[in-house]
Amino acid sequence: MKGNGVGKEGKQIFSFTRVFLFISIIIVTGLIFISSCTKEYEFTMGQDFFDSQTRLQVIDTFSVNLSTVLLDSLKTSATKIALAGNYKDDIFGSVNVGAFFDLGYQDFEDIEDKATYDSAAFSLKYTGYSYGDTASLLKLDIHMLTEKIEPYSGYLYNTSSFDYSPEVTGTVSFYPAPESADTAVYIPVNALGEDLFNKIRENDENLSNSEQFSDYLKGFIITSGSPDNKSVIGFTADKDNLKLIIYYHVDAEEPEKKKITLSMGQENHQFNSVKFDHTNTPLNDIEAEGNVIPSSRTDNYGFLQGMVGLIPKLQFPSLNEILAIRRWKILKAELVIEPVYNSYDLFGLPQQLYIYDTDRENRVNTILLDDKGNPLTATLDYDDLNEEEVQYTYDITKFINNELSDAYFDYDHGLMPGLADDNFTSTLDRLLIECKNPPVKLRIYFLTY
Amino acid sequence: MPRLVKTSFLIILLLLSWADIFPQSTSSPYSIFGIGILESNSVGPSKGMGGTGIAFLSEMSVNSMNPASYSGLDSLLTIFEVGIFGKYSSFSTVHDNQSTVNANLKYVLMGFRVNPWLATSFGFSPVSSIGYNINATAPIEGTAQEYLETFSGTGGVNQLYVGTSLKLLKNLSLGVNAAYLFGNITRMESSAAFDYSYKDVTYVANFDFNYGLNYQLNIKKWRYNLGFIYSRSKDLRTRNTTTITTATGTETLKEYTYNYSIPQNIGVGLAVSKGFFRAGIDVERSDWKDIEFSNIYFQTRNSNRYSFGSEFPLPGDRKGTGKMIFLRFGGEYRQSYLLIDNVPIDGGTITLGTGLPLKGTLNAINIALELGRIGTTKRGLIRENYVGLHLDMSLRDLWFRKRKYD
User: Fold this and answer.
1) CATH T-level topology, domain B2-405
2) Which of A32, A375, B208, B227 is at 20 to 30 A from A60, Cα to Cα?
């Protein structure tokens, strides 16, 4: 057996391991040296020596066909917002929103013999959402339902409705202050309150269990109380904030004030119904046309509005032309949407738009996703100073490349710029776009080589 | 011989892994042309002497410039050399100044004497290298905008060689290096903003032979050596692939062959030595004129290289012992084979070096500082001023003698 250079003579002889170690150290040192010294420089010298083999070009003249689709129905239940009011303008027409809800049953405590009824009111808290002109007086009425709220397989829609008594149970007129989250709006319902107070005191059998309670008190609708209203206001719809309060006092030497609170019932029994009328607006014929109408018949406009269910549809008839170019790669495809100038003074613009793909049947199909798997959005670019370049830009590179990957672009496969799901079902947020001046643009950056 | 087999095997393994991990890199905008910046094949002590070495015999170091030199190797020693080179360059045009830093493992080689008339060497070293990363503005056609396009190049040609030297007469040696040239030349244009890269990769390979001769004349205590080297013009076999990569994937656009040529090379050197002193001069000529490149920006011409250098021990107690320290100096002038707009890109360097003994008597470290200038700022061209540091580890071992003791 010979050790690695260990032995009498081995002292002078470098063992292989030592040499190997030595080399390793050199290499490691070299590596450290290299990594610590090599930097990426912004080096620009020598650019004259190159002839680029590639050309980057932009085309933004692809035609975009714009139409507006009216969706059959939108789920509006359990959105935690109760909307009521009405508004009318010459472009989007009139919209009238009513909030349906019911009250939850409770085991009422006995009321003292010496108690005297005072008053009753529904208490509403602002969500902060408003649509229209909040500087005008708003009149809201509350009616009692004559049928129970029953969701269809769990949901209720903007088109759903339940019968209610024409008789007004309570009414209120006020100047809305949607920013004041702490201020409550009260709708006095004294007669209803007194009736309930007496039934509770008498342990009326209508209040003896949840079944009989909901037969007796089927639910309510807050509706617009006047065609002159100029706004729709949002109120928080949950058990803590939407409630009926009955006030009474107990007679004694020092009168004691008391109240009974009835809170909102099941969340999915709460929904907003939307009535709209497009008569004498550019959208006059949309329903007659089968809920889809090209922009050529709507003054070149395309309409987006939540809760009503208006959504623009974009199609790209000339995109196939790019296939005629011999060697190309699409590097970037942008969809640029500019709101119609002066169409958003009163309403503001959605801060963010989403986008969905659609088909021949005008269905809102899947939402487009970005590279990270999040919904693809376009954020509003807004230049306060000169109001130019107010626009939304989507990066739809992936969509376009997927569509063209089979060397054919399907015209029926269009895109629908829309609101986020929540906003689409719980706000009247709107956007007006057009196919002329400035049109919706498809801007394609492509490389030829 | 099992130890030799094991050693060789491990060295080859090391070389292969190195070839993968350490692609040669340089950093010069001039490396975009042809097969890139040509690398000097001088080793160790020659680096301190302006790259001079055609007439030097390999003594304590392997001189792969001239394969005939291996015959000078000490019959007892196996020499193992590793070289690293680091460089700081400042590039200037008439109105701009930019700098780069880079460092590389340059060569690994080994040499030993087999018997009194036969010596051999093998190793790995670069022939040329390409390295640039240049940002240029390009128009976005159809808009008034511009974007940043990056031109980058990496790779180079390497050689794996085996050399043999035969001592024909007492004073005359002949040698040949059989080299396998291989590598890739990768040129790319890309944009980070638009996420694409257009890449052209050329894989090159071929065998090459370099011949050498060394004749020694002894007059009194002086030795005179005459060296001669020659290699034929050679076409490199190539395989090119052009691809384009975007977010949707990579597509191969074309596969073709394009001949890169390496020209005929002739060199003559003269050296004088006495004791531990030596000095030499080299003249080398490469016939690039006949070689055509399909690049409209430059023309080729025959290029010459001239160099001189000297080495002497530091006087004092250590002289003549294993702890002796050498000092070296030299200079080199290299005519470019490139003419850009008829302007040559010539370069000159001066070198200062030292050879330091390491622990024990057998190992040494050679350090050389190189100050150089390449090119000109005339006609909008680029001048490079650089400071380079060569680090050469010379391991000397009695490996193959050990058997006799066992």
Assistant:
1) Porin (2.40.160)
2) A375
